[in-house]
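Fold this sequence, please.
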Amino acid sequence: QMADPFLYNTGDRSPYGCLGHEAQIEYLKAYVCRPSFFTDKAVIVVHDVFGWRFPDIRYIVDLIASYGYITICPDFFKGTEPWKSTDHWGDFADWMKNHDPTKVDKEADVVLKYLKEQCGAKKIGIAGFSWGGMAAHHLMLKNPQLTAGVSLYGRIIRDSEERYNLLNPTFFIFGEKDHTISLDQIFLLEEKLKQYCKVPYKIKVYPGQVHGFAQLKPEDMKPDDKPYIEEARKDMIDWIKMFV
């Protein structure tokens, strides 16, 4: 039996009081958090298999907003059920067929239009986690409106040359102990980007970290992991600041 592909121990998570609000954007629901001052910069956050209501992802949205970005996490599952930690792993492949992280272009366009027309955003970046990391990688190959991307432990899908023709600067974050992504795959990604990629990119592997490590709320972190989690977040924000 294969290891659970995206799932990490959701364990006991502390509740989280969100700072943002929910909004309806055309046919999509979204969680939006704005900084306290005007900005024309925005970041789209792509959730993992646990969906747009998962407290960890809302914490990340609020965190990015605190650095001065209009930050939005749309429901890329379009109202369908997210994966739940009680679901059976045997059903995961079927669930994935109906939740393909490379079929997010239409939703991305709806959100980009909203950010530009309703929020006055001029520069827009994207950060995706796990399932969302794959979606962010895909969108950085397809959508020139996204000025920078961060893909956090998104599995590296389909080895074809066009997987490496990134349109704008993209940063890939991985955990060294991620059971879903081997170091070999990461080295291959690096090799291929060197060969094909024409824009700035970066790959970084964080020692001892497992899948999903970067989205833990402070009170859910283990002391040994905390420095790496904080470093990954700082690196993510620095990348966004540099290009968005």
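Helices lie at 55-65, 92-97, 105-117, 131-142, 183-196, 226-243. The chain has six helices and eight strands.
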